[in-house]
Amino acid sequence: MIGLRRVAEARSGRASRPAVGRSDGPIVTVEHVSIAYRKGDIERTALDDLSLSLHPGETLALVGESGSGKTTLANAILGLLPSAGRVLEGRISILGYDIVGRSDKELRSIRGHVVGLIPQDPMVSLNPTMRIGQQIGETVRLRGVPRRSVPAEVYEFLDKAGLDEPQIRARQYPFELSGGIRQRALIANALAGRPRAIVADEPTSALDVTVQRRMLDHLDRLVKEEGIALILITHDLAVASDRADRVIVMKHGRVVESGPSREVLENPQDPYTKRLLEVAPGFAFRHTVEVGSEPSSTDQVPSGPVLAPVSRNASGLVELGTPVLALEDVVKDFPRRGAGAGESKVHRVLDGVSFEVPPHETLALVGESGRGKTTLMRIAMRLATPTSGRVLFDGEDITDLSWSALRPFRQHFQLVHQDPFSSLDPRFTVEQSIVEPLVAYKVGDRKRRHARAAELLDQVALPSSYLNRHPAELSGGQRQRVAIARALSLKPDLVMLDEPVSALDVSVQAQILDLLASLQRELGVAYLFITHDLAVVAQVAHRIAVLGIGKLAEVGPTREVFENPQSDYTRQLIDAIPGRRWLDTRDAGAVAAARS
Amino acid sequence: MSTIESDSYLVELEPAAASDSRTGESLVSRRRAASFARGAAKRPGAVIAGVYVLLILVCAVAPSLIAPYGGNQINATDFLKGMSLAHPFGTDNLGRDLLSRMIYSCRPSVVGMLVAVGIATAGGLSLGVVSGFMGGRVDAVLMRAVDVMLAIPGLLLALAIVTAIGFGTVHVSIAVGVGIIPGFARITRAQVLRVRNLPYVEAARTSGAELSRVLWRHVLPNSWQPVAVLIVLDFGTAILSIAALSFLGFGPQPPSTDLGTLVANGRNYLETAPWLALWPGVAVGLLVFAMNHLAKTMEEVQR
Amino acid sequence: MARYIIGRVAQALLVLWAAFTVTWIVLYELPGNPVELLLGGGLGDASAASPAQIAAVKKQYGLDKPLPVQYLHELWNVLHLNFGTSISQGGRPVSNILAENLPPTLQLAGLAVLITIVVAVVLAFVATYVRAGWLRSLLVRLPAFGRAFPTFWIGMLLIQVFSFDWHLLPAVGDQGFDSVILPSITMSLPWAFYLAQILIRGMSDVLDEPYIVTARARGESRLRIHVRHVLPNAALPTLTMLGLIVCWTVTEAVIAETVFGRPGLGSAIQQAVQWQDIPTVQAVVLLAALLFVTVNLIVDLLYPLLDPRVTHVPTTL
User: Fold this and answer.
1) Cα–Cα distance between A246 and C171 in angstroms, integer?
2) Domain containing A395 — which CATH number?
């Protein structure tokens, strides 16, 4: 124990600019570690015979989907395994000292000073009733810095983390700050311990795409400047490719593949790695091909969903029928509480938005969080009324209709909700959930409905034995399929999908997107697809509408929006898609190779 | 899919379903019983609590079957005797066996408890469901009324009601029951609101379901479980409040007694014969504890 | 901020008025025969009263007038702190009874509330901090067990142990500080346990929050985390219950004063109910409502000062 403490003190007391690339040996070594969680009488293995090492100054990416054990590993390195977790075998060494089985007191000397943490969700990782300056100050104090020097150091770290006006920021409470700023505060908190290594647990997955990129850029820079080793945990292989020197791919607690990132990405050995490569949205979107058009020579064989053909007339122009859904000049104001004198009493969320969803096609509405796309969707679904403007379904004005007047229309447009875990009544069987619309509209009798349920289940590629199951017995992807089947039961003309795949693992996402595309080809249903992820949308949409602040920044066919973005905001969004750096260097290499 | 195909599909399914349902039912109930037994074995505390509650109920329903002596039977020579084989809990100043008196006192206590919780449930449920489901003005008005009721402490409100309508077991239980209604209504309302805002309720609405269908098929079935826990908890609250009022002298009037009255009677002999006040109080406390434990177990099972 | 205060005060007055209305309905309109009650209480016999006497009582209490007038008449009286005359104490003005009995009850109430809060916080803190599984189990279950026993029984148990067995404290009476201790503990224990249960649940929930992980990851000690992060964040939501708990603690005076033979509002109302003394009962109930409203007002005004999320004006850049 004394040894650990001395090591930690020696490290944290060093001068502020350590030499990069000090070859002191690995900072973190994990040797053949297995970890299991105990729940009741059952012990479930979360990590199985895992080994890795982290060297000074390098960035190591741990890539895996949920259940891969990457978070368990991160917790174990910090000595923060919950009481139900147990290290079954193996060693975890920090700077040469084994930390397995050490007391909390001993581990405290490493936490923060030798290994720091940037947690996943900035919205809940800060004490809500304490100023952020105070919280970062605690980290500084724990290094033994005398009280009067603490504020200066806090400002220094806030500045390093990229926050302007550190003096003011320090006095702010978390609830005053956006997700991006909170995450920077957490970065400052991690840096404040002057650690040798930082574990960043999915540091950007809770953030908007444009903010993600800036955050990761900044983290890159900091890590290089301060010489800190970084373990970057992510589910997105594209992110790993941009940022990491080495990549370790994990599945179900085991290492599936590891090596320098270039090698792993160019020559993936394991089929799982290959699959992750295919479905990483940042990569996959490049492979979308519209049926009937020419694949370009640099693209690989398409593996994404194949879109239904857009109807074109004799001269090759796209044919337009009456749009299945049209919004005209929709404005939505919300009353603003606590507005002072002279301030506007309303918060204008939508300021004249217009778009159309053509029949049989997919329009994707892309916007970051807080931009009002949920509000827009609710208006389109007539769950809310616009302050002004019109909503037209199949040419008919449904803007002001009452709930009962809307009912006959509702048969023709349905909704698939964002969260597959709470959009199905837990007490209903799958069959009961699917036929609920039929029951509500009194379509058919019991026999017919049962048959229809089986038919729908078939269409969404679930076995008919699932009819009697309850949502609790299904995975997220399966539940989403049930929700889609329910939406299709009345044979609607339009299905609105509110972030239908964001809560799902990457590989499952791809399956659902495939399913949606094939259903569209088969049934001719139109989709209004709402999402924040531009990369996902590229695989499924014919047309894209980009929602900026209150207005549409851009509308157009998918290919055009990607290849010729008209607005700056769209350009930002496209640039922020992870994986570009690697693809660009790969393409550049291919071109160079072709030339020589 | 052609009609012929769907029909043959149906033909295939129907017979299987029919045979399943006949054998299926007995299978299901047997399975349920087995898993109940397994669950009970894991929770000895709950089993003990359940047994104790049953015991009290039996005492209430058929006291003469259990009590060794009559409720008012005077044994002339045994005044204020402590615990002995003949009188496990001792005797009082008239030589009456305390254990027997306690057993006979269960009935008014249990009756009171049932009446009180009955009133509380009827009032609280209707208020809570209507308020939570309808929302808006109705909700605001009803909750204001509930807030006012909460402003008067339950014990005092019960005292006021008893002042007005008189003393006795039923009067006291009505008073206590009314006092529990506001808290009950609040919690029911919170549950209804929680479920009402869940995505699957909205999904049902957009699927075309009418409000009544949403209420009966989605909201109520998914919100009753925490309310059931609350009902069991309120049994405990009711007993305590009724016992308190009885202790103060407003419960069953002599010669009938309930457990609270017994403690009051024992008060005068606290120094010389403490068991007279001790045991009835322990009985009440254990009953309340048992109820609370059962409620906690129900909550755990639901999760 | 001023608007917030005014709003809360207005609400408080509204609740008071509504409480008065409810009490009035219960006490004056529920009984089948208010006149009989007012003539001689439940224990008296009104059948021998002459028509003149009945008429006099009706006049005195305004029962000969239509309902709305009765109501307003009573409201007017109450607002002038005229609570009528007591039946159980031979015609004494109720306001005198209140004034006389308030101080001893306040003594009890003050100490009881203090004990409630201190015991609850200490119990909850220790129960969620200790690592030994058996000790934690015990401490967490303790409140549930302690709460199950009737207040009056706890009082008598305390008398048995501390007065009769150990001769430490007096069993009855109101002389000196010694006589305040046992009744106050009696009043506070059930609610201390209840508050402890709420706090334990709150603190356990906070311990599962991600920001506790952040604190641990920076190397903070368990004790410090418990004091600076867990306790404040768990205690804040309980403030709303605190108002109620304080009032319920004070109400236990009814029981405690009876058990320990102390004079005070508690024993006064016990006697009043015995005699079905409507004016006295009404007065005490209104006093309790006033207490509730005042305590809640204080909590409402205190809360924003403690929770920055409520009224902290965001610092603009």
Assistant:
1) 78
2) 3.40.50.300
Looking at the fold, whether A473 and A496 belong to one and the same domain comes out as no
Backbone phi, psi, residue C62, to 5°: 70, 25
Could you tell me which of A285, A358, A365, A326 has the C-alpha nearest to residue A529? A365
Same domain, yes or no: A251 and A182:
yes
Do B11 and B62 fall into the same domain? no
- Picking from B148, B270, B288, the nearest residue to C22 by CB comes out as B148
Asked if omega into B255 is within 30° of 0 (cis), the reply is yes
Do B149 and B275 belong together in one domain?
Answer: yes
**Predicted TM-score of the model (pTM):** 0.83
Q: Measure CB to CB from residue C307 to each of A110, A120, A129 and give the nearest one.
A: A129
Q: Are residues B81 and B178 in the same domain?
A: yes
State whether A498 and A486 are in the same domain: no
Q: Does A419 touch chain B (CB under 8 A)?
A: yes
* CB contact at 8 A, C168 and C162: yes
Tell me the pLDDT band of C42, cut-offs 50, 70 and 90.
very low
What is the per-residue pLDDT for A296? Answer: 38
Structural domain of A210: 54-79+108-285
Residues A453 and A505 both lie in one domain: no
Token readout for A97 is 């000292």
Quick one: tokens of C267?
């024993």
Give the CA count within 13 Å in the CB-facing half-sphere of B243. Answer: 29
Asked if C30's CB is within 8 angstroms of B284's CB, the reply is: no
Q: Is residue A4 part of a domain?
A: no
> Within this chain, do residues A124 and A272 fall inside the same structural domain, yes or no?
yes
CA–CA distance, C37 with A331 (Å, rounded to integer): 67
What does the pLDDT average to over A123-146?
Answer: 93
In this structure, the answer to whether residues A211 and A340 fall within a common structural domain is: no
- For chain B, how many structural domains are there in total? 2
What range does the domain containing B29 cover?
Answer: 1-35
Of the listed ranges A201-205, A383-387, B176-180, the least confidently predicted one is A201-205
Considering the domain architecture, whether residues A132 and A146 belong to the same structural domain is answered as: yes
Q: What is the per-residue pLDDT for A309?
A: 58
Subunit contact A176:C211, Cβ cutoff 8 A: no
Nearest Cα of chain B lies from the Cα of A524 at a distance, in angstroms, of: 16
Same domain, B157 and B201: yes
Residue A394 domain flag: yes
Contact C314 A176 (CB under 8 A): yes
For chain C, state the CA radius of gyration: 24
Same domain (yes/no): B30, B47? no
Q: Are strands A197-201 and A543-547 parallel, antiparallel or unpaired?
A: unpaired
Residues A368 and A439 reside in one and the same domain: no
What DSSP element (H or E) covers A340? none
- The rounded distance, in Å, linking the Cα atoms of A381 and A362 is 16
Encoded amino acid at A584, one letter: D
Hey, how many other C-beta atoms are within 10 angstroms of the C-beta on C245?
A: 22
- CATH number, residue B284: 1.10.3720.10
Shortest Cα distance, chain B CAs vs residue A224, angstroms: 45
Cβ-proximal residues to A418 (8 Å cutoff; 6+ apart), any chain: A498, A499, A500, A502, A503, B199
- Residue B293: pLDDT band by 50, 70, 90 thresholds? very high
Contact by Cβ (8 Å): C280, C88:
yes
- For A426, list phi and psi in degrees, rounded to 5: -60, -20
Whether residues B28 and B55 fall in one domain: no
- Residues of chain B in contact with residue A490, where contact means CB-CB under 8 angstroms, are 208
Angle between the A446-459 and B3-42 helix axes, to the nearest 10 degrees? 90
Asked whether the beta carbons of residue B152 and residue C288 sit closer than 8 angstroms, the reply is: yes
Q: With beta carbons less than 8 A apart as the criterion, state whether A498 and A466 touch.
A: no
**Which of C130, C205, C214, C228 to substitute to test the interface with A, most A CBs within 10 Å?**
C214
Nearest CB to A165; choose among C233, C307, C317: C317
Q: B7 pLDDT exceeds 80? A: no
